[in-house]
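[DERIVE STRUCTURE TOKENS]
===
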Amino acid sequence: MQERRKHPRVKPDPLFRIQVYTSDFAENPLHRTNLAVRVLDLSARGACIITPGRLRIGAPVVVAIDIPDTATRFRGRAVIRWSESLEKQGREAHVAGVEILEVQECQGERVEFMSGRAAKNLHAADDRRKHRRVLVSETQVTCTVSGLMGGLSGNIAKSLVDISEGGCKVILEKKVEPDHKVKLHFAFKHPALTVDTEGIVQSCVRDTMSLASKYDTRIEFQNMPNRDAAHLHLVLKALSE
């Protein structure tokens, strides 16, 4: 199953009583149907649940958690972000990912991690990557490090993996620490346009499956000239069609 959530997951407290129900019946308990047959894990932004059937992606729901006879209580407005049917040894199970959009109530230390405060920095990271990424090929990329930074000089880029209006993923042959500034040059073939911009390294991780030095590197664009931004917009539009 493809990884969809970046937030730390925790196993639900065995005392938790968890309900996931459609928001249409949020105020009518007699007509609620608990969509959570079982909760596999929880995070600051949602839950992974086993469901009685395949759920509709995008369906609005309410997540409610409490411990009976205590003050521990959580309630949040959420949405079904993904839903899959899995088969193993002739048996089928339905699994869904629930993303919490708004925390309406959160009381008690055991549900504190779902209060939303722990996810503020992750919201900022999501905002940085709100642009749709496009996979690319046959594109020449040059990446040089601004300043001295350990004596790195010249082009250290091997290839471009994907790109959006907000940033890109490149394969570098040298490690560059996060928050360092780089200069980028892209030469696209279809359409034949070039883009020059500055960027800030967000992450740079060694590819441990390769013997050669390869670093998967995420870069956020900064100070892109208007002409180059227009070129990039045209490239992304062409690649998306």
In short: Helices lie at 120-128, 226-240. Residues 1-6, 118-129 have pLDDT under 50 and may be disordered.
